[in-house]
Specification:
about 0% strand, 2 strands, mainly alpha, two-stranded antiparallel ribbon, about 60% helix, single chain, about 350 residues, globular, 17 helices
Length: about 350
């Protein structure tokens, strides 16, 4: 979309109001959201140890108690791209820190969080989600697996990764897939070819296909602003460089906001304040969000017990959660020692 228009603003506000009326996880205001968080604290956390509070908030935030749509709505209403960028930061950081849940997949399960991280400009976190040492993904949905491998090939610029990623992507493209998935794979392959004309065309088609997506829980509101599109766009600027990537046309669909993309580039994806901070006595969430998570790892839990699955690698979600809790507790202890 060329520029954020008043018509788009009105449409977003109307759809947000509709969604808030029927969805308890869409809040009208920041005060409403924080009041609910404070009520959870009062009802459940009074007698919890610090470690149990941290673990509980990780679970609660993981279960979609996140204010991302509220942030987008507030920023779009005021036409404030800095606030929208801050909302993307907060949303991506919450999603990253709450990864610790078993999925039955390897690091390919991280690909959607990776796109959120890219949309927020948190580029130094990509290797934490898709570590080079894990190699190519081989346990997951064929599409997410193919996207993961193409992004890893682009990020690490390894010819062996590229050869494998291209082969797997072509295999997926030879089967029936949704238009959005096809355009995503073609876009990433165009980036591998450093063909900015083709990449721009495929990203444009991807954004135009978003309105036709049919997934559980996906509403018109979600499709009005599509952070994944910004994640894919920002990826080009990292792997191709700003000069080359700037030659790529921006998508015309309204789910992609030119104003946001231009603000991020102009301000070098600045990591400023988040959309809002959590007040006492739930300010532990601020530390939780702000901590840098550990590098993801894989394990083979069936190596000695199940012939069928013994060679399968899985994301080690339990270990990730153990590590992130320890990181948060150490950060809180450090803060307390500095103030005490």
């Amino acid at each position: 979309m060329a520029k954020l228009s008043e018509k788009y603003q009105r449409t977003y506000q109307r759809e947000y109001k509709k969604e808030a009326e029927k969805n308890a996880l869409v809040w009208i205001s920041t005060d409403d959201y924080l009041a609910e968080c404070l009520d959870i604290h009062e009802q459940s956390h009074q007698d919890y140890s610090l470690q149990k509070k941290v673990s509980s908030w990780l679970f609660i935030l993981r279960m979609k108690r996140t204010p991302d749509l509220l942030g987008y709505k507030t920023a779009i209403h005021s036409n404030n791209m800095e606030m929208l960028h801050s909302s993307l930061l907060q949303s991506a950081m919450i999603k990253h820190v709450t990864l610790g849940v078993d999925s039955g997949c390897d690091h390919s399960i991280n690909i959607w969080t990776t796109l959120d991280i890219l949309a927020a400009g948190l580029f130094d976190r990509v290797p934490l989600l898709l570590p080079e040492k894990l190699g190519m993904s081989d346990n997951g949905h064929p599409v997410t697996l193919a996207i993961t491998n193409l992004i890893m090939a682009l990020w690490y610029k390894r010819t062996d990764f590229e050869a494998d990623a291209r082969k797997r992507a072509q295999k997926v493209l030879a089967t029936k897939q949704t238009p959005a998935d096809v355009f995503t794979l073609r876009y990433l392959m165009a980036l591998l070819d450093e063909d900015v004309t083709e990449a721009g065309a495929q990203l444009d088609l991807y954004c135009k296909s978003v309105s036709a997506l049919r997934e559980s829980g996906l509403t018109k509101l979600h499709k009005l602003f599509w952070p994944y599109a910004h994640g894919l766009y920002n990826l080009a600027f990292i792997v191709l460089g700003r000069e080359k990537a700037s030659l790529m046309i921006k998508p015309a669909a309204e789910c992609f906001l030119d104003d946001l993309a231009e603000w991020q580039i102009k301000h070098n994806y600045r990591h400023g304040p988040l959309f809002f901070e959590y007040p006492e006595p739930i300010d532990v969430i601020n530390t939780l969000i702000s901590c840098t998570p550990p590098e993801c790892s894989l394990h083979q839990p069936y190596l000695d017990t199940d012939k069928r699955y013994r060679d399968k690698r899985y994301l080690h979600a339990e270990y990730f959660e153990q590590q992130i809790i320890q990181i948060i507790l150490e950060s809180i202890a450090s803060q307390n020692s500095q103030t005490g």
